[in-house]
Automatic annotation (TrEMBL):
Gene3D superfamilies: P-loop containing nucleotide triphosphate hydrolases. SUPFAM superfamilies: P-loop containing nucleoside triphosphate hydrolases (SSF52540). Keywords: Signal. It comes from Durusdinium trenchii. The keyword Signal applies. This is Sulfotransferase. Residues 1-23 form the signal peptide. InterPro entries: P-loop_NTPase (IPR027417).
Length: 509
């Protein structure tokens, strides 16, 4: 940091002067995070005095960061924030207080920070202060080392790992950003039940719910951290969608971007046997290629976080990555702008930083669940290689019909599921995209769906083969390739190969 620019006295000035300085709402709004405003939608109820003080501190942090193009703040600023807010309730004395552990620990708070240290989310101080405290030594590197050791050193499965009894009321589908959220949304259904929901539930409610919190019988409540605010409207992060059966009360829960949290999350209930879970995973290097191509587009619709500049956002990235990414533009650009301004090699390196925390969580979960009978892990590649075979193995898994029990013909409900799902096949969408690029038409929109919407998806969510090939070569020249990606790819492969569930239900590959 530029020495001699202590920030926290500035904070105190704001604290003392706050109510006089802020003469009107417009002046206040100009200091607020745009992401916060997007989430809140309007300005009423924003003037709570304690929060106002905090927001001003946040604005001071933002200005400091932008002015000095550095996120390495005076440590006193970060420690002053929780002290001023009298948040010492969880530790007995200030001597026991450790900022990284109590305010930032990603194993407890993911990328959100403790709400007592950072009452507002999203805000600049969460990112700035946590990046500062977690990067020396690097939290991410340490976490990756622990995971890699457990994957590569622990070849033999412990045969007597306790297997929980599994209930059958909940059927879960879980994916990460760029590991099949779009595809699984089509299969589960967005506003009306999709093919998979129609297969699994007798009488699905014709209505999707997006609850932040829900109750899983005998397992407890799933409460989203920060009251569901990590859910970025319209639902790109840590969302859940549910459909339920009116007769049996069975539920389908579609879950995206699981968070780590002190509170048990949906994935924790599932691991304990609350139901069967389809875990959609993807080869890390493909996640990065796909993420880079998608995030680099100058989209004016869709994922809002791509366009946030105050503070800039990289979705569920780790704090240290946030700091390393946005230092490149002096903390004055959005993620999408940054990618548009970088060469593809630089951009691919940035996308590796952005997605490494998701990749770590994905690999951790895949490894923890590798031998559980009630979790089926399916890589995205499988849908591309053998769409029908992959759908059949998913259907067999949810209906508990091992592959050898089945006669040569799939039952009629499975065949119907296949027929209804064809439009969502990645290779079909890809060919549709290629037709469009040649100036042809792709008129095969799903029944009841807008053709324009279908075509939009075909052009934004699926990358062209040639472009992917070129970018893959670029990816191999990035520093991340030397240090991280080949190991991450190998880790996923090792985990999937060790999974007996995939064999039992006849999954391809
Ligand atoms: C603004 O937010 C308040 C509280 O959340 C809500 O009651 C009110 O209807 C909102 N106003 C508008 C115009 O959306
Ligand atoms: C991105 O789109 C916006 C709005 O359409 C436009 O103003 C801006 O110039 C575009 N940026 C680039 C780099 O093309
Ligand atoms: C992108 O690069 C141009 C030219 O170097 C520069 O003027 C602009 O400020 C940059 N934008 C961002 C968001 O970094
Ligand atoms: C997949 O299943 C659908 C529906 O039964 C069928 O029309 C299609 O030909 C199958 N595709 C392949 C590659 O077998």
């Amino acid at each position: 940091m530029p020495h001699g620019v202590p920030l926290w006295p500035l904070l105190l000035c704001f604290h003392l002067a706050s109510t006089q300085v802020i003469a009107n709402t417009r002046q206040l709004v100009s200091l607020l995070s745009e992401q916060f405003l997007t989430i809140k939608g309007n300005f009423s109820g924003l003037l709570d005095p304690q929060l106002l003080r905090y927001r001003l501190a946040s604005a001071a942090a933002a200005r400091h960061t932008a002015r000095h193009a550095a996120a390495e703040l005076d440590v006193a600023f970060c420690e002053a924030a929780p002290r001023m807010l009298e948040t010492k309730t969880e530790w007995k004395s200030i001597d026991q207080f450790d900022f990284a552990t109590h305010c930032c620990d990603p194993a407890k708070f993911d990328s959100l920070g403790h709400e007592k240290c950072f009452p507002e989310w999203p805000s600049w101080p969460v990112r700035i202060c946590c990046a500062h405290h977690l990067s020396k030594p690097s939290y991410f590197k340490a976490a990756w080392k622990v995971l890699a050791l457990s994957i590569f050193d622990d070849e033999v499965l412990e045969e007597d790992r306790p297997r929980p009894p599994v209930q059958n009321q909940v059927k879960g589908i879980m994916a990460y950003h760029k590991s099949g959220v779009t595809l699984s949304t089509e299969l589960v259904g967005n506003v009306v039940p999709g093919p998979l929901t129609r297969l699994l539930l007798k009488d699905p409610e014709e209505k999707v719910m997006v609850p932040h919190d829900f109750h899983v019988t005998k397992f407890g409540d799933h409460n989203s951290p920060r009251g569901g605010r990590p859910v970025i409207t319209p639902f790109f992060q840590a969302f859940t969608r549910t459909f339920s059966d009116l007769y049996t009360q069975d539920m389908i829960i579609h879950f995206s971007n699981p968070l780590k949290s002190r509170e048990p999350q949906f994935q924790d209930f599932m691991r304990q046997g609350a139901g069967k879970l389809l875990h959609l995973v993807r080869r890390p290097s493909d996640m990065i290629l796909s993420g880079y191509i998608y995030h680099r587009q100058n989209l004016t619709t869709g994922e809002e976080w791509l366009r946030f500049r105050n503070p800039p956002d990289c979705l569920s990235c780790d704090h240290e990555a946030w700091s390393d990414i946005f230092r490149l533009c002096g903390f004055r650009c959005s993620y999408s702008e940054l990618l548009q301004n970088l060469t593809s090699q630089q951009g691919l390196q940035v996308e590796q930083l952005r997605s490494r925390w998701d990749i770590l969580k994905m690999l951790e979960n895949a490894h923890a669940w590798r031998d559980l009978d009630h979790v089926l892990q399916v890589p995205m590649e499988s849908f591309r290689q053998d769409f029908n075979g992959t759908l059949l193995c998913i259907a067999r898994f949810f209906f508990s019909r091992p592959v050898e029990d089945e006669s040569a013909d799939a039952p009629p409900e499975f065949r119907q599921f296949l027929e209804e799902s064809q439009l969502h096949s990645p290779s079909f969408i890809e060919s549709c995209r290629e037709t469009l690029q040649r100036g042809g038409r792709c008129a095969a929109a799903p029944p009841g769906e807008d053709e324009a919407k279908f075509v939009y998806r075909a052009t934004t969510h699926v990358a062209a083969k040639l472009e992917k090939k070129r970018l893959h070569a670029e990816l191999r020249r990035t520093p991340g390739w030397r240090h991280f990606l080949p190991f991450a790819d190998a880790a996923l492969e090792a985990t999937l190969q060790g999974s007996p569930t995939r064999r039992i239900f006849g999954c391809p590959g």
